[in-house]
Write a structure and sequence with these properties.
This protein is α/β, with parallel strands linked by helices and 298 residues long. It has eight helices and 13 strands. The chain folds into two domains: 79 residues, ACT domain (Alpha-Beta Plaits, 2-Layer Sandwich), CATH 3.30.70; 195 residues, Rossmann fold (3-Layer(aba) Sandwich), CATH 3.40.50.170.
Amino acid sequence: MVRRNPYGPIEVLDQNRTPQNLVLKLTSPDRLGILARVASLLAENRCDIRDANVYGDPDTSGFFVRMHIHSYKRSLEELKEVLAPVACDLQLEASFFDLSKKLRVIIAVSKFDHCLNDILHKWQIGALPIDIAAIISNHNAFERTAKWHDLPFYHLPVARDTKAVQENRFRSIMEEKDGELVVLARYMQILSDGFVADLASRCINIHHSFLPSFKGAKPYHQAHERGVKLIGATAHYVTAELDEGPIIEQEVRRVSHATTAEEMIEIGREVEASVLSRAVKWHAEHRVFMNGARTVIL
């Protein structure tokens, strides 16, 4: 007996046709049938789901989906229109992203270059899916570094009475360069509440994970004096609460009583650089979802 496929004939995709390479992010209240509805709709519109990651949070009853899609027929804008009725019916927050368009990133840095250099290296070798639009600094120490990489450099010194002017110039550079994400690569300036609000979920910072302990100058020396055995770093979105924004990535390294303060600094810089680069990569790949004060990484 021949069994019929209840879903109709299986279409063989034309491998010689280059599809649009897209990401679909979905957030909704957790309920039955979300994936089934969305997947069926995508298939009807000749979209091939290459991979999908989902998470249902039992605490917040939130449901999060990231799909990597090849679209053989519909443009990104057409898919938005096709999905709109289903999104309304299921209370979905849905966003499509074209992976062929790299995220435009502006890096802000002060006097320490380990995070800057790590991002520049990974960008150059194609390990970070970003375009660096500019480097901004309140010092001019890394102007030559920017020129060597053929990147625009802006020296924006900060003083108490010129902070508002400096931040307005920062804003204008972001607009001029079509900046989509600001990365604070050890940028040792506190942003005003208004500027932080403008950059909501579009600004990533890195700090050592000793906080709230060992504030102020020479935190690694303070940690050494207290006999700390773990060194770590935290990458997070910037909010008005200093160093308390939603955490994207963290890492720790173990040290011992024999580790000197200088060795702790060296280890700390390695950790800070790798953690910040991973956070930037995940944001650029559209893997980060807000879940209240927390993040979901898919």
